[in-house]
């Protein structure tokens, strides 16, 4: 079913709520003196949008606004993920010492606008809509990265982000122009139909898809499109860094899956949810190579990092490589594993950045020495939580990260990508070194007289507790999340 503009508004509730919240925040910023109120209004708007998203489950999949936006379980999954990340990031911002330095009104308005763009990255069924959503996310991310006043590191990170993002966006839209020239449309279904005929220039299509992958891969920090990530993670306010590390990756994954599966792949046997790449574009081999390079570079570069935010940036690059493994399998198992893993990654990575924020609030530092003897300096609970998150990021049982990696490894082994599985296993072992290094510093290194006490902010404790409990529980009782991930694979492909 293809709906027009007015009819589409009836099924556009989450976006309308989020847009209304942004407008309300803009008005409040002009008239309200207590800017802390903005955070609670933003939280309320995100919660209402989350409820509106939940109400759309069970709605018949359809295309909105004359085939520009898809409404299906896949889009709803990533909208829920984006809203959860927004709620967590706003909650973190309430207790952040860095965020208190910025203009709070602008900060929350731009952050919600960034989430609004991610909605369209997940639901766009047309390359033009996907591009507009990605650009909205990119522009707001540049602003938030450079928002810390009188902070040279923040300004430098924003400039680098802008330059890298501009090059990636230009490369991507150039590739899209090639696809439009050969397929005659930017609509995913039309591109699929044109490729099914097999009349296109194979070399030209492959080059076009490499260009498009450069833009999509830039959002997920695939190597070699990852150069912005460490500087941005280090320079941006920590709550936004946590949001960017999970929500941006999730939105990049959504746009990547929706393009490379419904647009440039074809279903195998009916009802089997097994895809086949078109013979004109064998993109799976390229993704295997990118996955190996990404996870290896991320883990090796993280080994020598002393700044914890930069270390987590390189860790995020490595995890982008792990997630990408699910793309090459071309079946239901690989897709389910990716969706499951991205939820687990959101939980444990947000938790790790929340501990980074707690330490930075107390010490003003982000280097490894700031974590020396953390458990003995009045921060035993954050230290234990950090250990749980880091062990889960490594993939150790019985934590949620282990189940996520197990599902991805099972999918690629079943798909007979044995070399990829061996490389991923070696990289997992390498990552254990730098994660355990932080844990050892927190629990085994004795604090010096210069290391003062670390007080945990009141707002951080409940969120830390929830994230840690979820990390543990999903490691032993993962069935509901796995079922939810499997049920979110309903693409609207007509």
Describe this structure in words.
The chain is mainly alpha-helical and 494 residues long. The protein has a domain at 292-494. It has helices at residues 5-9, 13-31, 37-55, 73-94, 104-123, 127-145, 152-183, 188-196, 202-220, 229-235, 238-263, 283-302, 308-325, 332-363, 380-394, 400-414, 418-443, 460-476, 479-487, and strands spanning 62-64, 69-71, 265-267, 275-277. Helix 6 (127-145) runs antiparallel to helix 11. The strands form two sheets. The chain has a two-stranded antiparallel ribbon. Helices cover 71% and strands 2% of the residues. It contains 19 helices and four strands. The model has no long low-confidence stretch (mean pLDDT 87). The longest helix has 32 residues, at 152-183.
The end-to-end span amounts to 8 Å
Number of helices: 19
* Average of the residue pLDDT scores: 87
Strand order of the largest sheet: 1-2
Q: Structural class from helices and strands?
A: mainly alpha
Which parts are unreliable, with pLDDT below 50 for 5 consecutive residues or more?
Answer: none
In total, the number of strands is: 4
What's the shape? globular
Using only C-alpha atoms, the radius of gyration works out to 22 Å
Helicity level: over 70%
User: What amount of the residues lies in strands?
Assistant: under 5%
Describe the largest sheet: 2 strands, antiparallel
- Pattern of helices and strands: HHHEEHHHHHHHHEEHHHHHHHH
